[in-house]
Specification:
heterotrimer, A alpha/beta, B alpha+beta, C alpha+beta, A: alpha/beta, 4-stranded antiparallel β-sheet, 10 strands, 27% strand, B: alpha+beta, 2 domains, 6-stranded mixed β-barrel, 12 helices, 17% strand
Chain lengths: 243, 405, 397
């Protein structure tokens, strides 16, 4: 859906104190993202990519600057309202999966719905659908330590999208995975993007980053290069890599 | 978040950490059980004492010779007054309209002989009314007969223990015994009520009052029991009695009237205070349990920092995170309290089975108090750690760092 | 608020062993403080009661008519063979006997002019003041009489105030139970003992009391004796003398020792019981130590594995954790003692009359108790730590 930008970042600044030094994690950062975009953000460690992700995901607040998400300015919001947005409009996928290891696959996936107060009867069909789509039906009762890395990340993705968010943020989603599982996960993310979810992937792996339609490079908190255009379209052969 | 989801979430966590859960449940349960047990015993003691004293009934007065000025002090123990309460006084009292019945008492230790056996036994001189007043039943035979007070009859009633002591397993009814230097025929054996406080008729010999006067060579009554007529007020009866005695004793008010209220009042207050104090001491342990809950909650928060970050990322508000940790502590405390309540009542019930006469009962204020303290303490002590968790910055928490949002 | 900031600061270091230890110590401290304060208060009460009780002097034997059945009521009931004045006189001649006090007690009206007061009347002999260690503050006590005593009376402090105010009562006349008596002395203020007002009383010669109350015999005879003999021996002497006179043992002897010992025992048990109640808090505190230590051991698996890899033996690990437990508990014990000292100090300031005695024995016992608690609570987690397989422990990090 083109038209008005879904996301607009204007002069975002964020500074951390590390001992005696000041680190400019974000330095007057500007960015616009349309609905349905597929971006990757690359750069050396310390470049501010994760900070950018945290800003976008409302996990952190900038020192200055403005962030518009779907026509709403974020700095005006209180923590409770930000939390509500995180629940409804944003989905996260982390490098370390961050599944709760005492909960089963089903319970992990339905967590956003539980937090929201959705009754069990409504949750069940939604979770079942995702379990089936992602090939996790046989693992519904398993605990995370009984799953492989790839499976865990799929559970995390399911959890991220169960509320059909507008924005999906992935921080090094393939960082802990072997190449086969990596491929599966990326394919899955691109599938979801094709269905309309705006996707932003932070990665240090150029192979992964190169697949995005828009490719951003950061250094020292600033955008130093941007590339757009079809670099690696989702090949049909890779789409069936769900197992 | 729905309540049942919340409970299930916490339950899952508590079951995983079964050792910690068990210990906190134990700590809370010990505290609650102690409070219930101790207050139950204290309350039981109070009831026991009240019951014992209440054997005389709400409408009974006790008169003693002699009077002390200082009210609020103990009533004169001795029963020695400068002026005796005579049998004529007793007869006059019996005629008062506000009294239903009157029983004089003379009490002393007398040598009792029965065919070779010789014991010193507590001996009571009284009248037939005594048995009605004290609602005593006869095991065998009959009570003292209705007779004029001055009649020094030669009959007696004995208690079962006396019967055992003097006659063994032989027949006692109809037998003659020697009390002091007079002979009496046993016409009845009174039932043992088993009271320990107050006067236990089980080990007494009961004679007509005039006979006792002779044996002990004394004129004055030791006590006089007076029962107020139903329909008449206690106050009115008191006044009538005191006026009568004053009149008969040359204008002197030299007797003391004890009502059950006065006696019970003092005991009641003391025992209630005792029960409260004992309960409070036990409740201190609940505070210690609360400290344990605080400690565990702090540890829990620190161990689950990444989880807290995750939950916040998924959209849990600060209030929800606080609620999670608070509810965890509350659930633990509530469960522990319930176990403690169950254990406390179970123990009391067993105790009651072993000593049926002891009326153990947990006062309601203790039950509610223990529960309230357990829950209140848990909330109080988990509040700060839970607040800490709520304020964590999500981004940092995910990385395992501790920083305020 | 300062304390809140402090708390926030310490809470800030969530990985702090410090906060954890402080809380654990606090738990034990409360438990020890409870035990300490309760036993101290109980002990104070016990000493208070004993002191009050033994104000009558300690080398004293009481004789009452009749065999004791209804406890102390023996002398109040009519007995078949009374204790006579002659009996009391005879006891005077026993070796080692110092004072012999015959007693008849009752209540009656004391009048002075128009003022009337109903109070206790005690008929005693001239030895009473000396035997019971009462002091005469005005005039003198009752004199030794021949057969028929003079109608003299000695007033208790309160009766003097009530009937005479500030006037000098000596030589004045009062009526006791209708009879005329002359005041020859006033007793010093004694205060209350266990609810009994010792100043609200009038003393008259015992033989006059016998006729006043129309009694054949005495209610009690108190005998004080010299230190050179024992309570038992004295009691035996009195017993034999009275058996000779009465032809049988139809009386009861109570030595002060026995009374005190009985009371002492009861109060001692009471103190222990109440202290034991405080022990409930200590028990919960011990559960606290156990819980925290077990949790700590689980968290420090990696550290333990490392220690073992560096050469620490299983036993050394055990001792290490055991030591930690005992130190935590001891710190709690000290904190608890300080807490109870503070509290008792405040209490002593607020209620000076309260008998508070901090006995060093209790202090040591409290410390010992806390060490024991630490030891017992620490055994399980320490063994757990010692049994950890080093390889697995290291891998778990």
């Amino acid at each position: 859906m083109s038209g008005a930008a879904m996301i607009r970042l204007e002069q975002l600044c964020k500074t951390y104190r590390l001992g005696d030094e000041e680190v400019h994690a974000l330095d007057r950062f500007d960015l616009g993202i349309d609905a349905g975009d597929y971006l990757s953000v690359m750069g050396p460690s310390g470049s501010g990519k994760s900070t950018l992700l945290n800003m976008l995901g409302l996990l952190d607040t900038p020192d200055s600057g403005r962030y518009w998400l779907e026509e709403q300015e974020m700095s005006a919001l209180g923590e409770e309202q930000r939390a509500a947005l995180r629940n409804r409009r944003i989905g996260f996928v982390f490098q370390a999966y961050h599944l709760i290891d005492r909960l089963s696959t089903r319970e992990n996936i339905e967590l956003p719905l539980v937090l929201n107060g959705t009754p069990p009867s409504e949750r069940r069909p939604l979770v079942d659908a995702l379990l089936e789509r992602l090939g996790l039906e046989h693992h519904a009762r398993h605990l995370p330590h009984q799953l492989s890395g790839g499976q865990r990340q799929r559970v995390a993705i399911a959890r991220a999208v169960i509320r059909r968010p507008a924005l999906l943020l992935a921080d090094e989603p393939t960082g802990n995975l072997d190449s086969h599982s990596s491929g599966e996960v990326i394919a899955l993310l691109e599938e979801l993007n094709a269905e309309g979810i705006t996707l932003l992937v932070v990665t240090h792996d150029p192979a992964v980053g190169g697949r995005a339609r828009r490719r951003l490079w950061m250094q020292d908190g600033a955008l130093i290069r941007e590339q757009a255009g079809s670099a690696a379209p989702a090949a049909s052969g890779e789409r069936d890599a769900r197992r | 978040m729905r309540v049942d989801d919340l409970i299930r979430f916490n339950l899952n966590l508590l079951l995983r950490q079964w050792f910690r859960t068990l210990m906190i449940l134990l700590a809370t349960a010990v505290g609650v059980t102690s409070v219930l047990l101790l207050t139950g015993l204290g309350e039981g003691a109070r009831r026991f004492v009240l019951d014992e004293f209440a054997l005389l009934g709400q409408d009974t007065l006790i008169m003693l010779p002699g009077r002390k000025e200082t009210t609020g002090g103990l009533p004169p123990l001795t029963g020695e007054g400068t002026r005796d309460i005579t049998l004529d006084d007793v007869a006059a009292l019996a005629r008062l309209r506000s009294l239903q019945m009157v029983a004089p008492l003379i009490l002393g230790n007398a040598q009792v002989h029965v065919s070779g056996r010789n014991r010193e036994i507590l001996t009571l001189g009284t009248n037939a009314r005594f048995f009605q007043l004290r609602e005593l039943n006869m095991q065998q035979g009959r009570p003292l007969p209705e007779a004029p007070l001055e009649q020094a009859g030669s009959v007696c009633v004995i208690g079962p223990e006396v019967r055992e002591t003097l006659f063994g397993s032989n027949r006692a009814l109809g037998e003659w015994i020697r009390v002091g230097d007079r002979r009496f025929r046993v016409i009845g054996i009174v039932e043992d009520r088993g009271e320990s406080l107050g006067m236990d008729v089980g080990n007494q010999v009961i004679l007509p009052v005039a006979s006792a006067q002779q044996i002990f060579n004394t004129q004055g009554m030791f006590r006089v029991l007076l029962k107020v007529r139903p329909g008449s007020s206690m106050e009115h009866a008191r006044e009538q009695v005191l006026e009568l005695m004053q009149q008969r004793h040359g204008g002197e008010r030299d007797v003391t009237l004890i009502t059950q209220d006065a006696l019970l009042g003092a005991f009641n207050d003391i025992l209630q205070l005792l029960t409260l104090a004992v309960g409070a001491i036990a409740a201190i342990s609940l505070v210690v349990a609360g400290i344990l809950i605080m400690n565990i909650t702090l540890i829990s928060v620190s161990q689950r920092t990444a989880e807290i970050g995750l939950l916040k990322a998924l959209g849990a508000s600060a209030a929800q995170v606080r609620l999670l940790f608070l509810s965890e502590a509350l659930m633990l405390s509530a469960l522990g309290a319930l176990i403690g309540i169950a254990a406390g009542y179970a123990l009391l019930w067993i105790g009651h089975g072993i000593w049926p006469r002891f009326p153990v009962s947990v006062p309601l204020w203790a039950l509610i108090g223990a529960l309230a303290i357990a829950l209140g303490v848990a909330t109080l002590f988990a509040w700060l750690p839970a607040g800490r968790a709520a304020r964590l910055a999500p981004a940092a928490a995910l990385k395992g760092e501790v920083r305020d949002a | 608020m300062l304390s809140r900031d402090y708390l926030r600061l310490t809470l800030g270091t969530l990985r702090s062993g410090r906060m954890r230890s402080v809380l654990t110590i606090t738990g034990i401290a409360i438990g020890i403080a409870a035990v300490m304060m309760l036993t101290t208060l109980g002990e104070g009460l016990r000493i208070y009661v004993l002191e009050n009780f033994s104000q009558f002097g300690s080398r004293i034997v009481a004789v009452t008519p009749g065999k004791a059945q209804t406890g102390g009521m023996g002398g109040i009931l009519a007995g078949t063979r009374p204790l006579s004045l002659a009996d009391a006189q005879s006891l005077r001649t026993l070796p080692y006997a110092i004072h012999v006090v015959p007693i008849v007690q009752g209540a009656g009206a004391i009048e002075r002019g128009r003022r009337v007061r109903h109070t206790d009347i005690l008929g005693t002999g001239p030895d009473a003041a000396a035997a019971w260690q009462f002091n005469v503050v005005l005039g003198r006590y009752l004199p030794a009489g021949g057969g028929y005593s003079q109608p003299y009376a000695v007033l208790g402090h309160k009766v003097r105030n009530e009937l005479f105010g500030t006037d000098n009562p000596l030589g004045r006349f009062i009526r006791v139970g209708g009879e005329r008596y002359r005041v020859i002395g006033v007793m010093a203020e004694k205060g209350q003992m266990l609810g009994f007002d010792l100043d609200d009383i009038v003393y008259i010669p015992v033989d006059r009391a016998l006729s006043l109350f129309n009694r054949a015999g005495l209610m009690e005879v108190d005998v004080t004796y010299q230190p050179a003999t024992t309570a038992q021996a004295m009691a035996d002497r009195i017993r034999s003398r009275l058996i000779a006179r009465h032809g049988g043992e139809d009386f009861t002897l109570i030595t002060q020792d026995a009374m005190l010992a009985g009371l002492d025992r009861i109060l001692g048990i009471l103190t222990l019981t109440i202290g034991g109640l405080g022990g409930i808090s200590l028990l919960v505190g011990a559960i606290g130590i156990l819980t925290i230590l077990v949790t700590t051991v689980r968290e420090r698996r990696g550290e333990i594995g490392l220690l073992r890899a560096l050469g620490a033996s299983s036993r050394q690990v055990l001792l290490l954790f055991l030591c930690e437990a005992v130190l935590l508990a001891l710190a709690g014990g000290v904190a608890g003692l300080l807490l109870s000292a503070l509290f008792l100090g405040l209490l002593a300031l607020a209620i000076p009359a309260l008998p508070i005695q901090i006995s060093p024995l209790f202090l040591l016992l409290a410390l010992g108790l806390s060490a024991l608690v630490g030891l017992l609570a620490g055994v399980l987690p320490a063994r757990q730590a010692a049994r950890l397989d080093p390889v697995q422990a290291l891998q778990s990090e």
